[in-house]
Design a protein that fits this description.
The structure holds 2 protein chains of 2 kinds. Chain A is built from 6 helices and 12 strands. Chain A has 3 domains: 1-50 and 62-96, Helix Hairpins; 102-235, Cupredoxins -  blue copper proteins (Immunoglobulin-like), CATH 2.60.40; 242-341, Cytochrome Bc1 Complex, Chain D, domain 2 (Orthogonal Bundle). Chain A is of the alpha+beta class. Chain B is mainly alpha-helical. Chain B has helices spanning 18-22, 27-55, 66-85, 88-102, 110-134, 155-185, 198-230, 243-277, 284-297, 313-341, 350-373, 375-381, 385-415, 421-447, 462-492, 537-540.
Chain lengths: 344, 553
């Protein structure tokens, strides 16, 4: 089936290989529904007009008609069986990833997504994938139920803490021929981007803005030409800098990472900010913090690193062990720690 | 001079004082108290809905914070499901009319009936207290592990609201037991099962579900409470539990619950279509049996709420197949209602408008269920606004319209007063248009990819969300006009005759309102409730002289 790469009135663009199959089924059910609706309501309205009460005309006593009853019991059953059959076969296609799929590890948490490539590179709230190659997501949650939903690909699967779930997709070209060209390789070039939503209610921290609740834990899937994707993977993680400058201080990188890794979901950073689920990080470096085991500690480099790498090991008194494991490379960790140290 | 209270005084005037209502064992008074309570709860849940839709008029903050929104949508669901819709038709209209239709003086266990009502009151009060102290924000489905987490909501608030629902469940179970016994044991002579009004068949099937399914909810909520208080580890994966197990337990009740909601709506529609077509429902036995089969098949399909939850493909295959099977009995009913209109003699007073609207809206709701039962398509539509639209079409377009149909139809009988038919038509039009504006839009929002339970949304969804919200205001206006109409009727409505709709049904053979013990003499049923060709002219006389057929006929 051909992919319709523009959205229709009811459905988004068909940007995965099996999206046309799903939509064919949707359209078939839609057509069936229209036929039944017009038939039922049409007959109803016709009878309302033809048999409206007229003086002197009595209603005919009802009977029943067994053959008619059996007909309209069993013929819809046949129709429904057809719907069920195709629903199931397409579902099985969607459940069975090809053997050569790239495996991406997805970790969902309140309220962000982490994508880990097979080579260990981690992307936060965005995922680069190559066009025309199958990609399998192996997913888990570190806290509550979430659900990974990409309308353009027609995929959705819950993330359940305590178990792994998976789905697969293969992104298709949107404009034919753009995946192959003579242009120089560019790890940043993207053919198109698809929106990812969380589709299982998971609460909110009360703030407006991104990554603060179920409604704002968005991610993006960037579909690239194979060659650009290979460049992106070869380049590896790059420390972000403000205004895309080529270099910057660790504190500057750290300030961007602090947001992109969604530490802001739980930690305040301003003087006097209200603490909810996690301590305010304003001006904590070189100061005493009481811990939940009764001891106290002076916040230093080692403590900050340990708090991120082993988040449930030394909890500040008055807080619960709820911080999830967040993956950072060593240079990212150095940058974030430098940033936290600079908050005063 | 005060009117003498005799055996012929109607049930409203027969006794006076708060105690005579609070301690009554008269099924009619209990029905009226339930009616007032559920209408109040409907108003409360409706206000929650208007708050939700107002927040969603525009992206970003409109009138409330994200946490407040999460509580408000949770309350909308919990109040509407547990405090309004499940009791609505059975407890209010079922209580009032089941004995009348059976030719009985009361239900089988009148004191148990009163107990059911008091249990409902206690459960509702506890729910309201829980809401006012610290409302939960888990969604009405209380999914774990979020409902175990003490970040969004406190342990005490989830324990109090689930205890309230636990208590309310017993009201539902005891009413079900009462109705089953009543139908089996208190039918008047001559009223064999094949002559029962279809309303009775529907209420009977509903009662069977209530008795079998509600205990599962009670146990599920009890386990959730224990999990929260004692950290048992049944659902919490950090303690070795399984979060998906909660979903299985929860939906094992909550799917049959939706049949508790729809069967009574269909039950009312049977009566109104028959009366306003002056004809027995076509395929009577098939319709009666379809109620029973819905009750039984409804227990087998709970997994269709969980296709993407991580269940095996084998399990999803079974649940999808059974879900298609359960679609058939509903279709059979719709076809039979339309066939009843054929060669009938149809009039279009407001109860009939609601019944006809039920057919249209329930058909849309049912057909959209097919999209959701189809595995591959459900992946795209699950947890989007498509689902929200689907269940509002069946629960509001279906059950609420059925409830309104019954209230309009039986209002003269219950209160002895007519209501203003013009106001009824105006409110019907506002409700019908407002409902479709609000919810049809949501099918499109859902299929375009808009997830549910979102306090904020991407800007390209704004036009559809805004239109839906405006529809909700039209819907609200319709209900306000209706409320005014009913209050005006109680205060100064025209006195209602015994049988204003000219129905052959048995409940119309008593006064409006009925006397305390329903009938002056033991009824003997020589005909069925839809036998217009066997009923006498007197039985069908609607009390308005100008409608009397000419004597020379």
């Amino acid at each position: 089936m051909e992919n319709q790469t523009e959205p229709s009135l009811q459905l988004p663009a068909q940007l995965s290989t099996y999206a046309p199959e799903v939509d064919w089924l949707y359209d078939g059910i839609y057509a069936t529904s229209i036929i039944f609706f017009v038939g039922i309501v049409g007959a109803m309205v016709a009878f309302m007009v033809m048999y409206r009460r007229k003086p002197g005309v009595k209603a005919e006593p009802t009977g029943h008609h067994n053959v008619l009853e059996l007909f309209w019991t069993f013929s819809p059953l046949l129709l429904l069986f057809v719907m069920f059959h195709y629903g199931f076969t397409t579902w099985m296609d969607m459940a069975t990833a090809p053997d050569d799929a790239i495996n991406i590890r997805v970790r969902g948490r309140q309220w962000a997504w982490e994508f880990e490539h097979p080579n260990g590179m981690v992307e936060d709230n965005q995922l680069h994938v190559p066009v025309g190659r199958p990609v399998r997501l192996v997913m888990s949650s570190s806290d509550v139920l979430h659900s990974f939903y990409v309308p353009d690909f027609r995929v959705k699967r819950d993330l359940v803490p305590g178990m792994f779930s998976s789905l697969w997709f293969q992104a298709v070209e949107r404009d034919p021929g753009t995946a192959v060209s003579d242009e120089p390789l560019d790890p940043e070039r993207v053919l198109y981007t698809s929106q990812v939503y969380c589709a299982e209610y998971c609460g909110a921290n009360g703030n407006w803005g991104t990554h603060s609740g179920h409604a704002t834990m968005y991610s993006l899937i960037h579909v690239q030409r194979q060659a650009d994707y290979d460049e992106f993977m070869a380049r590896g993680p790059v420390l972000p800098c403000p205004n895309d400058a080529p270099t910057c201080t660790p504190e500057e990188s750290g300030s961007i990472l602090f947001v992109s890794k969604t530490c802001t979901s739980c930690h305040g950073i301003a003087e006097g900010a209200a603490a909810v689920a996690a301590p305010n990080l304003w001006n904590i470096y070189d100061h005493e913090q009481p811990l939940s085991d009764g001891t106290s500690i002076t916040v230093d480099e080692a403590y900050l690193r340990r708090s991120i790498l082993e988040p449930r090991s030394q909890i500040v008194q008055g807080y619960s062990p709820v911080m999830p494991n967040i993956r950072l490379s060593d240079s990212e960790l150095t940058a974030v720690v430098a940033y936290i140290r600079s908050l005063h | 001079m005060a009117t003498a209270i005799t055996d012929d005084t109607n049930y409203i005037n027969a006794k006076s004082g708060i105690a005579s209502w609070a301690l009554t064992v008269d099924h009619k008074r209990i029905g009226i108290m339930y009616l007032a309570s559920v209408m109040f709860m409907f108003g409360l849940g409706g206000v929650m809905a208007l708050l939700v839709r107002t927040e969603l008029l525009f992206p970003g903050e409109t009138i409330m914070s994200p946490r407040m929104y999460n509580k408000v949508f949770t309350l909308h669901g919990a109040i509407m499901v547990f405090l309004f819709i499940i009791p609505s038709i059975p407890a209010a209209l079922g209580n009032f009319f089941l004995p009348l239709m059976l030719g009985a003086k009361d239900v089988a266990f009148p004191k148990l009936n009163l107990a059911s009502f008091h249990i409902y009151v206690v459960g509702s009060l506890l729910a309201v207290v829980s809401i006012m102290m610290n409302a939960v924000d888990t969604g009405w489905t209380f999914y774990t592990p979020y409902s175990n987490q003490s970040v969004g909501t406190t342990t005490s608030s989830i324990v109090t609201i689930t205890t309230a629902v636990f208590i309310l469940g017993f009201s539902s179970i005891l009413t079900g037991v009462n109705f089953i016994a009543t139908v089996h044991k208190l039918r008047a002579p001559g009223l064999h099962w094949k002559r029962l009004p279809l309303f009775v068949w529907g209420i009977y099937a509903t009662s069977v579900i209530q008795v079998l399914a509600t205990p599962v909810l009670a146990i599920t909520l009890f386990l959730l409470i224990m999990e929260n208080v004692l950290s048992l580890g049944i659902f919490n994966p950090q303690l070795g539990g399984d979060p998906v197990l909660f979903q299985h337990f929860f939906w094992f009740y909550s799917h049959p619950a939706v049949y508790i909601m729809i069967l009574p709506g269909m039950a009312v529609v049977n009566e109104v279509i028959a009366t306003f077509s002056r004809r027995k429902i076509f395929g009577y036995m098939f319709v009666a049996m379809s109620s029973i089969s819905l009750a039984l098949l409804g227990f087998l399909v709970w997994g269709h709420h969980m296709f993407v939850s991580g269940m095996s493909e084998y399990a999803t295959l079974v649940f999808s197949g059974l879900t298609f099977l359960v679609a058939i009995p509903s279709g059979v009913k719709v076809f039979n209602w339309v066939a009843t209109l054929y060669k009938g003699s149809i009039s279009f007073e407001s109860p009939m408008l609601y019944a006809l609207a039920f057919i249209v809206l329930f058909t849309i709701g049912g057909l959209t269920g097919l999209f959701l039962g189809t595995l591959a398509v459900d992946v795209h539509l699950h947890d989007t606004y498509f689902v929200v639209a689907h269940f509002h079409y069946v629960m509001v377009g279906g059950t609420v319209f059925g409830f309104l149909c019954g209230i309009h139809y039986w209002w003269p009988k219950m209160f002895g007063k007519m209501y203003d038919e013009n106001l009824a038509r105006i409110s019907f039009a506002l409700v019908f248009v407002g409902f479709n504006m609000t919810f049809f839009t949501q099918f499109v929002l859902g299929s375009q990819g808009m997830p549910r339970r979102y306090y904020d949304y991407l800007p390209h969804f704004q036009r559809l969300h805004g239109f839906s919200s405006i529809g909700s205001y039209v819907l609200g206006l319709g209900f306000l006009v209706m409320l005014y109409m009913f209050i005006k009727s109680l205060m100064s409505g025209e006195k209602a005759p015994r049988n204003p709709w000219g129905s052959a049904g048995f409940e119309w053979q008593t006064e409006s309102p009925p006397i305390e013990h329903n009938f002056h003499h033991q009824q003997v049923m020589n005909r069925g409730p839809y036998d217009y060709h066997l009923a006498t002219e007197d039985e069908l006389f609607d009390g308005f002289e100008e409608d009397r057929p000419a004597k020379s006929e």
